[in-house]
Specification:
The structure holds 2 protein chains of 2 kinds. By secondary structure, chain A is α+β, with helices and mostly antiparallel strands. Chain A has 11 helices and 9 strands. In chain A, α4 runs antiparallel to α9 (330-367). Chain B has 10 helices and 10 strands. Classes of the chains: A alpha+beta, B alpha/beta. The A-B interface holds A 316, 318-319, 321-329, 332, 336-337, 340-341, 343, 415-417, 420-421 and B 55-57, 74-77, 79-81, 83-85, 87-91, 100-101, 104-105, 132, 134, 145, 148-149, 152, 154, 158. Chain B: It comes from Roseovarius gahaiensis.
Chain lengths: 421, 269
């Protein structure tokens, strides 16, 4: 909740800063800047690059600030670490009361820590010493060194002077103390607002993991091998899917019989999410490479078939007529008119198919695989290696984005007439 | 010497709802080499159907088309088409579009290069030959379409409202160009148009068609096309005879439209 509010504040602050600060210094005067009606004019809305940069920086800043990153100068309050103390008041059955102090040493989990050395103190309640890991809590049987025990009727009636009863919790200086139903004390040091590394590791931990896994590997394969295998499956599956799907789509676009024969199959298979095929593919082909490639082939096949079919249907009849009356044969019509005319549609299909394949391969690897980036993430999650999980997710995102950009570049290069007809 | 003869063409097809459409009924005419005929008529009179039959895209239910003493059965390079919207190939440069026909016929650049460059000169696009066609304006695209058709050296050129999508000024320039190309190449041309003025200006012969069923209503022989060659077409339009003919044909088509409207009102009543 705090993070969300902070995020909104950063959003608003950056907006006003850029609008009234930066914009003042470099006024552009292009055509769009002269438009007075921009609200509702989609063409006047362009992504503000300042916003994009600040957005990314803000995410990393928040991430760093709430994980205690070394890279970020400001931090959210972290968990309490160090020595603290609180007192409890023990009441004996005869009504006598005595105070004792609990000395607690809160240490970073993973670091060595000793319980603080203390004097037992006066009275029938004796001082105690405990050590607690940050973000953890510690049950304290405070009466084990006291002269009157709980089973003899002693009970804690107040902590730091605040009266308590079993089941209640009171705040103390650096945390809170709960009295359990049985009357013992449970000390939880203040957690602060940072995330524990097991939930969300700091950015540097993730980066360190990248280096470590890139050189040493994880689950018998290096990071590059995991990524390579995932990409390899996508590319092989997509290429086979396109190699079968495009001719099939052409046939469906050019022949009644093919259209009639494959229409029910394509229309039925198209809405089946490829993920739903994973169990069947595993039964048929196992969890090895062939299973993955069959799955990705199926994921790409229908998309490519439909886009090739749409590409053929999209040929303006006047172009076909023109080609025939210029003396083209059927084969020449195919090669010089229908295929080039369908390329924009096929590229759109290819972009969608590559995206779907990438998503499917990760999901398939999550289910069962020996290698691959999805498998890496899944195994890491089982061992609670959150840093590897986050690294994997970021890499999956980057690669998916890169695939999309590459297909777009290829499209702009190969079909420059797209959208200009 | 007759070249193109249309012999008793009828076209009738069934609709899914059981009724049928008589698109053309008993259309006959003969075109001599080098004649330019414009075809006018209200919408639904079958003029585009007639053109598609001539091109070989549709088969008539009755009658036949003969060109140079052989039967027309399908599309062929001997009958070139120019469409309303260029129908150019966006993936080819201007020059590749124009040379499409010869290239499909398997000719080498040696054989067609000169002709194609000459045609690009004639239509004024020599400077644009390596441009992509989608970079050209509508008028320029239509000039590419004309050049592409001529590069194939067809016997007959069929034009389906070739200037219909152009703005008035470009259209007037293009009308001059069509006349010039007609005279220079001596091609037989059939030109369908919606514009009475264009039909009068360009048509050596002018065919007015009537709808339901599509048939030939009246034919004119006109002097304006010959007058217009190499001249400012606005001068031709000032000819009082031109004005008379325009009024006559306009009211003829107007009457037909009225009749259609009346009939459909009766049908709906």
């Amino acid at each position: 909740m705090t993070i969300l509010i902070l995020y909104v504040v950063i959003f608003a602050a950056a907006f006003f800063l850029v609008r009234f600060g930066v914009r003042k210094f470099r006024q552009m005067q292009d055509f769009t800047s002269l438009k007075t009606v921009t609200f509702g004019d989609e063409s006047a809305v362009k992504p503000d690059r300042w916003a994009s940069v600040i957005s990314i920086v803000a995410i990393f800043l928040l991430w760093g600030a709430f994980t205690g990153s070394q890279w970020v100068p400001i931090h959210a309050p972290g968990p309490f670490v160090g020595d603290t103390q609180f007192t409890y008041t023990l009441e004996a059955p005869d009504g006598r009361r005595d105070d004792a102090t609990v000395y607690a040493r809160v240490f970073k989990v993973g670091a060595d820590a000793e319980e603080p050395e203390i004097q037992p103190g006066d009275g029938f309640a004796k001082n105690d010493a405990i050590k607690v890991g940050a973000w953890r809590s510690e049950l304290l049987l405070m009466d084990k060194n006291d002269e009157v025990k709980r089973k003899e009727g002693a009970k804690v009636v107040a902590i730091d002077g605040q009266p308590v009863a079993p089941g209640e919790t009171v705040r103390v200086v650096d945390g809170s103390v709960a009295v359990t139903a049985k009357g013992s004390l449970n000390f939880s040091p203040a957690k602060g607002m940072q995330m524990e590394p097991i939930w969300l590791p700091a950015p540097e931990a993730v980066v360190a993991r990248v280096g470590e896994i890139a050189s040493e590997g994880y689950q018998n394969f290096t990071l590059w091998e995991h990524l390579f295998w995932s990409l390899f499956r996508v590319i092989v599956g997509f290429v086979i899917g396109a190699a079968v799907g495009i001719p099939l789509g052409y046939a469906m676009g050019l022949s009644n019989w093919f259209r009639g024969w494959f229409d029910p199959i394509v229309e039925f298979m198209r809405p089946v999410p490829p993920l739903a095929l994973i169990p069947l593919v595993i039964i048929w082909a196992g969890i090895g490479e062939s299973g993955k490639i069959i799955l990705l082939f199926l994921a790409a096949l229908w998309i490519m078939t439909i886009s090739a079919r749409a590409g053929v249907s999209g040929v303006a009849i006047s172009k076909v007529h023109a080609a025939y009356s210029l003396g083209a044969s059927k084969w020449q019509l195919m090669r010089h008119v229908i295929v080039p005319n369908s390329l924009p549609e096929i590229f759109t299909g290819a972009r969608v198919a590559m995206g779907v394949c990438w998503g499917t391969v990760v999901a398939a690897e999550l289910v069962a695989a020996e290698k691959g980036v999805g498998m890496m993430v899944m195994v890491a999650a089982r061992f609670q290696n959150t840093d590897i999980v986050i690294m994997g997710i970021i890499l999956i995102g980057i690669i998916g984005y890169a695939i999309d950009i590459l297909t777009r570049k290829a499209e702009a290069w190969l079909v420059p007439w797209k959208g200009r007809i | 010497m007759s070249t193109l003869s249309i012999e008793n063409i009828s076209m009738r097809f069934d609709l899914p709802n059981g009724s049928h459409v008589q698109a053309l009924k008993d259309v006959s005419l003969t075109l001599n080499t080098g004649e330019l005929m414009s075809v006018l008529g209200p919408s639904g009179c079958g003029k585009t159907t007639l053109l598609n039959i001539l091109a070989g895209f549709l088969a008539p239910t009755e009658g036949r088309i003969m060109l140079n003493d052989h039967l027309v059965t399908g599309p062929d390079a001997e009958r070139g088409m120019v469409f309303q919207q260029g129908a150019l190939f966006e993936w080819m440069s201007v020059r590749d579009n124009v040379s499409f026909g010869p290239r499909m016929a398997g000719k080498r650049e040696k054989q067609w290069g000169e002709t194609v460059d000459h045609l690009l000169d004639v239509v004024g696009l020599q400077g644009f030959k390596d441009k992509a066609v989608y970079e050209l304006s509508g008028g320029m695209q239509q000039r590419v379409a004309l050049a592409r058709c001529l590069a194939n050296d067809p016997d007959v050129i069929l034009m389906d409202e070739p200037l219909g999508a152009l703005d008035a000024l470009t259209r007037e320039k293009m009308q001059g160009l069509v006349l010039k190309l007609w005279k220079e190449t001596g091609k037989t041309i059939i030109l369908i148009t919606h514009s009475v003025e264009e039909a009068l200006l360009l048509g050596e012969r002018l065919l007015v068609m009537a709808p339901r069923p599509g048939r030939i209503h009246k034919e004119y022989s006109l002097p304006f096309a010959d007058d217009g060659v190499g001249r400012d077409l606005r001068e031709v339009k000032k000819n009082p005879e031109f004005g008379e003919k325009r009024e006559e044909i306009l009211s003829m088509i107007w009457d037909m439209e009225e009749e259609i409207m009346g009939r459909s009102e009766e049908a709906s009543a």
